[in-house]
Design goal:
With 216 residues, the protein is of the alpha+beta class. It folds into two domains: 122 residues, Alpha-Beta Plaits, CATH 3.30.70; 61 residues, Molybdopterin biosynthesis moea protein, domain 2 (Alpha-Beta Complex). Helices cover 30% and strands 25% of the residues. A hairpin with a 2-residue loop joins strand 7 and strand 8.
């Protein structure tokens, strides 16, 4: 009998995974910044979005933000005294946890903390966000939406029908409740109805400068 021609997995030992390439690139970029900037900050972020990070980089064009995996950023700086890239830098590295980023800058501490603490605004919430208010929809017409959107609204959980080309909400609906984590469907509805209930802001956690580490 002829042998079955089954597909065989071929290992390309010389091919490097894209994930490793990105990690290596970030590590090299962070280490290059050690020679360009005198201050490094760990910044805690809350409800950040890509649009906000882009704006941040524009407003601090003479500084450098790194938003990446905590482990990769920590490795780049050195996690222990034995592998740290500068003296006492492992102390800063050990503070990298949760939602945070690194800021490399030559600006004075007072200017940095003032800017970071004042940088905040409103955003649409992501699934899992716990709102501080309850927002409800009352029954009646929803003229702000095209009739073509009615099936989508129904799919997201609203009780709707079309009446002479106008979407009608047949049953009141809570878009969110105080302290109740938002579902993926409700996050989409809040965005459709224009409710930016999440606040993005940042806080300065710690700083490294001239081989010195300090908690801020």
């Amino acid at each position: 009998m002829p042998k079955a021609k089954r597909p065989r997995a071929i290992t390309l030992s010389k091919t490097k995974k894209k994930g490793h390439v990105r990690k290596d690139f970030m590590i090299s970029q962070i280490r290059e910044c050690l020679d360009k900037y005198s201050n490094i900050y760990v910044i805690i972020t809350h409800n950040m979005r890509s649009s906000v990070t882009k704006q941040l980089r524009k407003e601090m064009i003479d500084s450098r933000f790194f938003f990446g995996k905590n482990k990769v950023m920590a490795v780049a700086l050195g996690r222990t005294a034995a592998d740290e890239q500068r003296e006492n830098l492992h102390l800063l590295s050990n503070q990298i946890s949760g939602n945070c980023c690194l800021l490399f800058t030559n600006k004075e501490k007072e200017e940095v903390t003032r800017f970071i603490n004042s940088y905040h605004g409103r955003e649409y919430p992501l699934p899992g966000y716990e709102p501080m208010d309850t927002i409800s929809l009352s029954t009646g017409p929803l003229p702000q939406f095209s009739h073509a959107l009615e099936p989508y609204l129904r799919k997201l959980g609203l009780h709707t029908i079309l009446d002479n080309g106008v979407i009608q909400l047949l049953k009141s609906y809570d878009l969110c409740k105080i302290g109740e984590p938002i579902t993926a469907e409700k996050a989409k509805l809040l965005k459709l109805f224009g409710h930016q209930i999440a606040e993005f802001y940042m806080t300065v956690k710690c700083r490294w400068f001239d081989d010195t580490f300090e908690i801020l």
